[in-house]
Design brief:
This protein is an alpha/beta fold and about 425 residues long. Helix content is about 35%, strand content about 20%. The strands form five sheets. The protein has a seven-stranded parallel beta sheet with strand order 10-11-9-12-14-15-16, sandwiched between helices. The N terminus is likely disordered.
Length: about 425
């Protein structure tokens, strides 16, 4: 068992090292033409004679995990360096929209005090479905974002203050090894499902798409894959919120909050979020408000490995945190972590549609998330709460630290 796990881990590391993800593309890294599957096969073939000694080395997995964490840091650093006019780091060191801070539900006195200190109001968003008001403040000239965030926190100690931090898609681009498509669902799922992602392509039927970033909506491979998996799993009504568009600072917390607000207005009872990012005060409030309206939030744990920081929104209380398994029901070694783990679902060795409607291989927790979201929606078709139904449906796998409360949609895949 351990040998198989290490082999899968080595393959995952090679895949992460040579294949560009949608998040990588947003981070400015070059695309790689070779598919993940071909590269893994070729690489493992050339190191076959040394694989057995590596299997006996219990440090191999540790090296993989450390490499994944280091790769994450390198991606973020490159993102900031290549987009200095739009992105900078906040007080916690996370990438965020440059020169702008967010006040959530501020009093008029708070806004006035901020203005007097040089934080000029740059706009206001009234998120009526969430019951939130967000005031955007421009950081004073001469301050960077981190300095401004600290200064505003000292000025307004009782305010909810946030940088507009960025969130990233959590799956390998279409083109990874894929050997199966989803079995056609025998039951149509009536509960509407919303997705926060890039926009799906024209070949994937959704009820509506709305953009919440510059240039949006723009069809993307990642958003198309997520939408196609929702549709293949039986979801009849899909609403897509594009939070990326053509903006280098897309996927920000305010765009996601706007998207959730719109989806609630469309009566989406389940919201699938295949994105990961840092803890964010605005997004935490938006998620909690959506849950108070009865929405089930389903989110990916990401693909930066267990040494990466906990991923959000998966780590927020009550969010269904989803990890992924391969075609042999083995946990993906590159799967990230959250402060809790709820379920696993298929996320590798399967096919999904790209923006042009071609069915291509995918890998990552991004693609497990819509399958889990579809099962949550199916549970809500006949019940008031999804979690008890999902607990009965999930197939137990051990250990719980890798699979949560069990595997959902485990029989969804079929051979081509």
């Amino acid at each position: 068992m351990r040998n198989r796990f290490i082999k899968a881990g080595l393959a995952a590391l090679v895949a992460c090292g040579v294949a560009a993800t949608p998040a990588f593309a947003q981070l400015g890294l070059p695309q790689v033409g070779q598919t993940v599957g071909d590269t893994v096969d070729r690489t493992l073939g050339t190191v076959g004679q040394v694989l057995d000694p590596v299997e006996r080395d219990v440090d191999a997995i540790g090296r993989i995990v450390r490499a994944l964490a280091q790769r994450r840091l390198a991606r973020l650093d490159r993102l900031v360096r290549r987009n200095r006019d739009r992105i900078e780091r906040d007080a916690a060191g996370d990438p965020a929209r440059k020169g702008e801070l967010l006040l959530v539900d501020p009093s008029p006195e708070m806004v006035a005090r901020a203005r007097a200190a040089g934080f000029a109001p740059a706009g206001e968003d009234r998120l009526d479905e969430l019951g939130l008001v967000v005031t955007r403040l421009a950081v004073p000239r001469g301050m960077d974002l981190a300095q401004g965030e600290k200064a505003l926190a000292r000025l307004l100690p009782d305010a909810t203050i946030s940088a507009d931090t960025l969130n990233f898609q959590s799956g390998v681009r279409p083109g990874a090894r894929g050997t199966a498509r989803l079995s056609a669902s025998t039951r149509t799922i009536k509960t509407p499902v919303g997705m926060i992602d890039g926009a799906p392509g024209a070949t994937i039927r959704v009820a509506a798409t709305r953009g919440f970033a510059r240039g949006a909506p723009v069809p993307s491979n990642h958003g198309s894959a997520v939408a196609s998996l929702l549709a293949s799993a039986g979801v009849r009504t899909i609403y897509a919120a594009d939070v990326y568009g053509t903006d280098p600072a897309g996927g920000n917390a305010l765009a996601i909050a706007r998207g959730i607000n719109w989806l609630l207005g469309r009566d989406a009872r389940v919201i699938s979020i295949s994105l990961v990012g840092p803890r964010n005060a605005l997004l935490a409030r938006a998620v909690k408000a959506a849950q108070s309206k009865g929405a089930v939030i389903v989110a990916a744990v990401g693909n930066d490995g267990p040494a990466a920081p906990p991923s959000y929104p998966a780590s927020y209380p009550g969010v269904l945190a989803i990890t992924a398994v391969d075609g042999h029901d083995r946990a993906l070694i590159e799967a990230g972590r959250a402060l809790h783990l709820d379920y696993a679902a298929p996320g590798a060795d399967m096919l999904a549609a790209d923006a042009r409607g071609r069915w291509r291989g995918v890998r990552g927790t991004s693609y497990a998330t819509p399958l889990a979201a579809a099962r949550a929606a199916a549970a809500l078709d006949g019940h008031d709460a999804a979690r008890p139904v999902l607990d009965r449906e999930a197939r137990h796998l051990s250990p719980a630290s890798a699979y949560g409360r069990g595997l959902l949609c485990g029989t969804c895949r079929r051979a081509r």
